[in-house]
Amino acid sequence: GLECGLLMEKINGLDAISMGPNAYDVHSPDEHISIQSIENVYNLLCEILKRIK
Is residue 31 included in any domain, yes or no? Predict the structure, then answer.
């Protein structure tokens, strides 16, 4: 889910981003996800966390 908007409405001044792998045909019998994009998102998140440490 993408709850950033909900959280930002409830918590004044909250900055938020939403990120995740590429998903297709979500919530359908044909739902699938890009395996390569999982690795890309993981690597990006690790880099972000290193920089804000």
Answer: yes
Write out pLDDT tens, residues 9-49.
999 999 988 999 999 999 999 999 999 999 999 999 999 99
Range of the domain at 53: 19-53
Output the DSSP codes for 1-53. Answer: ---HHHHHHHSTT---------EESTTSTT-EE-HHHHHHHHHHHHHHHHHH-
Phi and psi for 19 in degrees, rounded to 5?
A: -145, 155
The answer to whether residue 1 scores a pLDDT higher than 70 is no
